[in-house]
Write a structure and sequence with these properties.
The complex is a heterodimer of chains A (about 325) and B (about 350).
Chain A: E1 48-53, E2 59-62, H1 63-67, E3 72-79, E4 90-99, H2 100-106, E5 115-119, E6 124-127, H3 129-132, E7 138-143, E8 146-147, E9 157-159, E10 172-177, H4 185-190, E11 197-198, E12 206-207, E13 214-219, E14 224-226, E15 230-238, E16 244-250, E17 258-259, E18 261-262, E19 272-279, E20 283-293, E21 319-323
Parallel strand pairs in A: 1-10, 14-21
Antiparallel strand pairs in A: 1-2, 3-4, 4-7, 5-6, 5-10, 7-8, 7-9, 11-12, 13-15, 15-19, 16-17, 16-20, 18-19, 20-21
Chain B: H1 2-8, H2 18-32, H3 36-49, H4 54-69, H5 73-85, H6 91-104, H7 107-118, H8 125-141, H9 145-158, H10 162-174, H11 178-191, H12 196-209, H13 212-219, H14 226-237, H15 241-254, H16 261-269, H17 277-286, H18 291-303, H19 307-320, H20 326-337, H21 341-355
Helix pairs in contact in B: 1-2, 2-3, 3-4, 4-5, 5-6, 6-7, 6-8, 7-8, 8-9, 8-10, 9-10, 10-11, 10-12, 11-12, 12-13, 12-14, 13-14, 14-15, 15-16, 16-17, 17-18, 18-19, 18-20, 19-20, 20-21
The chains are: A mainly beta (about 325), B mainly alpha (about 350).
């Protein structure tokens, strides 16, 4: 521990060892993985996290410091910004770690500054300071009760609930608090400042942040062959801001929509499991689901034709079924 | 109490300043009274005054051990990591560290720490064996089976142990190496004759290898209720269906919530010559509302010639599992016996529609 932040200041806390498997949580070894660079080889013994830049006292923490810090738990879904409309780059986890706000405060960070997050593999993201200090934003060391899997950011990563995964920097090794309007040259030159922007014809790029409202049909699967009977159509729905308010299902390609039942409690930053009882009649069917969140955002029926990028793909994905 | 005794040893540790000595003493007292949070804070303050002092490193190590005993795993790991960073190289501490790292999911760290012990001159043979077993387990957790097998075999060569044998057998079972598995467990049984867990694994491997006569003899001597399940399989394969049913009933007695137990007993009763349909129905009454229960009930009524009674359970099986093909076929048979040919044809058509179709995985 370098100047300023001592272990004395870090109140002792335990993340707790007990863990019970829960339904609707993605197993750690099945959590989706998207990387920009090669996975770094880090060890508990040598890993360090530096907090520097526009701070009163730069800090260097070891893994023991995080283990001894007051830990919190945060349920949070992660989705890749480039996840397809029916893609599987979305997972739900229970994270444990130290609130980012605690560490920034201990370093005496400028309360208004944005933050440059740096992974050990060289990945960089600038994130608004307000989001880093928001309740729930963590330096996570555990996923579902165990240390992070190596490919998911071991030994420590950022978790920003409600935002697409690209800002939840893995293998975190440095947090640099920036001054007003400061843009580090290394970040600009790396080209990473150009990533994850919303591009529309004739408009300047805008930064992608919150996860858009979305739902998926898990059962039946696309191209399923069924016999005429009653089937429990089911799936998941989620959103980045607020909570899911309702999910609707269409079994005729979007002409008629009916309410699905929400099977699990709606909570911020998590997905909700839904179901719909479908009396399948012989013929070809196109099933769709659409979700709406508490802010009134609803899944669109199709991709915005003005979009030039390939992010935020949240339109209603069809599931084709043949009933004999 | 054990912690207190251990910590008294530090009273005579050499110290360079009164402040340092005071902090260290406070840390010792706090730890001995179970106030670990205070102990950690005092120790951290002492370490800032005298980085690299061996008394601090030793106290980190002992505090780690005490926290481990209290199941405060994160705090224990933090202390053990600090002990090692401060240069404390006791093999038992390294073993604790590797065990914790493996249990908490830091597999590569566990492998590194365990491997360093295996080559350490300070480590005893049992410590090296444990280290090799931990490294093997960590490789297994990483699904690196070749490395896991190498390390687990090495651990067994150094000192046969239950953990290494059982981990190795799990790998062989998961990779369908039944022959290797049976050989390994025969060796394990000879090396650790008192181990019930090894005996159960050996019996299970014999069942999987088709050596049911021997399996039945091994499993009959194992007290674990799980052994009754495997004994039933062995007896059933030997055609001893009454003995198989008896084993399952013993299992139900000791573990009434064992998954599917009532269905398994019913299925076993149906294998008797002649089948005991009434008893089977009795056990199905106790079973959960699974589609299989309704399907089996329908089949029993069909076998008893009680065709009209078979209709409802089979329809319920279809309702609960409409994508499963066999109940349609069975219901078709029932309708045919009842002379309801149109309905029978409808069910057979559905069966044919489904039977060659497997839903894609998602």
């Amino acid at each position: 521990v370098s100047s300023g932040l001592s272990r004395r200041q870090l109140l002792i806390g335990s993340a707790g060892a007990l863990w019970a498997e829960q339904p609707d949580v993605t197993q750690a070894d099945r959590f989706f993985v998207r990387d920009h660079f090669e996975e770094p080889d880090l060890s508990l013994a040598n890993w360090k996290l530096r907090i520097e830049g526009n701070v009163a006292h730069p800090v260097e923490l070891g893994f023991s410091d995080l283990l001894e810090s007051p830990a919190t738990q945060q349920e949070s879904l992660l989705e890749c910004a480039g996840n397809g409309e029916s893609g599987t780059a979305v997972s739900m986890g229970i994270w444990q770690g130290v609130p980012m706000s605690t560490l920034l405060k201990m370093a005496g960070a400028d309360a208004t500054g944005d933050v440059l997050l740096e992974g050990a593999e060289g990945y960089l993201r600038i994130v608004p300071g307000k989001k880093c200090r928001a309740p729930g934003s963590l330096i996570a060391i555990k996923l579902n009760g165990r240390f992070l899997p190596r490919r998911n950011g071991f030994p420590a990563r950022v978790i920003l609930p409600g935002w697409y995964g690209m800002d939840s920097v893995k293998w975190l090794q440095r947090i640099t608090v920036l001054g007003p309007r400061e843009k580090p040259a290394a970040y600009e030159q790396s080209g990473m400042s150009q990533l994850y922007s919303r591009l529309r014809k004739g408009q300047p790029p805008t930064r992608i942040t919150s996860i858009l409202v979305k739902s998926l049909i898990n059962y039946p699967t696309n191209e399923a062959k069924l016999v005429a009977a009653v089937y429990p159509v089911s799936g998941y729905a989620w959103t980045g801001d607020g909570v899911i308010r309702r999910v609707q299902v269409s079994v005729d390609g979007g002409k008629i929509w009916s309410a699905a039942k929400l099977e699990t409690p709606v909570r911020p930053f998590t997905w909700v499991r839904w179901s719909y009882s479908w009396q399948a009649q012989p013929g070809e069917h196109v099933l769709l689901s659409r979700a709406e969140d508490s802010a009134g955002n609803r899944q669109p029926p199709a991709r915005d034709p003005e979009r030039l990028d390939s992010y935020e793909l949240n339109w209603c994905a069809p599931v084709h079924c043949s009933v004999g | 109490m054990r912690t207190a005794i251990l910590l008294v040893a530090f009273v005579g540790a050499s110290v360079a300043s009164d402040d340092f000595a005071m902090l260290l003493a406070r840390a010792q007292v706090a730890a001995s009274t179970g106030d670990f949070e205070l102990a950690i804070r005092q120790l951290a303050a002492a370490e800032r005054l005298e980085p690299g002092n061996s008394a601090v490193a030793q106290l980190h190590a002992h505090l780690g051990g005490a926290l481990l005993q209290q199941r405060k795993l994160d705090l224990a790991l933090a202390q053990l990591l600090r002990a090692r960073q401060a240069g404390w190289e006791d093999p038992s501490i390294r073993l604790m560290l590797a065990t914790l790292e493996n249990n908490l999911g830091a597999y590569t760290d566990a492998i590194r720490d365990a491997a360093s012990l295996d080559s350490s001159a300070a480590a005893t043979v049992p410590q090296r064996a444990t280290a090799a077993a931990i490294a093997g387990l960590a490789y297994k957790n990483q699904k690196r089976n070749e490395d896991a097998i190498r390390l687990l075999k090495h651990a067994i060569e150094l000192a046969p142990g239950e953990t290494a044998y059982l981990a190795l057998t799990e790998i062989y079972e998961s990779s369908d190496q039944a022959g290797e598995n049976a050989k390994l467990l025969e060796q394990a049984t000879a090396a650790l004759p008192g181990s019930q867990r090894i005996a159960l694994a050996f019996g299970r491997s014999l069942v999987n290898a088709g050596d049911n006569q021997r399996a039945a003899a091994v499993l009959a001597a194992v007290a674990d209720p799980e052994a009754r399940h495997w004994l039933a399989q062995a007896e059933s394969s030997l055609g001893e269906f009454r003995k198989a049913t008896e084993a399952l009933q013993q299992l139900a007695l000791h573990a009434p919530d064992y998954p599917m137990i009532n269905i398994m007993i019913a299925q076993s009763l149906l294998k008797w010559d002649p089948p005991d349909y009434e008893q089977a129905l009795h056990f199905l009454d106790r079973a959960s509302t699974d589609p299989d229960v309704y399907y089996l009930r329908g089949k029993i009524y069909f076998s008893l010639g009680r065709y009209a009674e078979a209709v409802k359970p089979l329809q319920r099986a279809i309702e609960l599992g409409p994508a499963v093909s066999l109940p349609y076929y069975q219901l078709g048979q029932v309708f045919r016996k009842l002379g309801r040919q149109t309905e029978a044809k409808e069910q057979f058509d559905k069966f044919r529609f489904l039977k060659n179709y497997s839903p894609p995985l998602r």
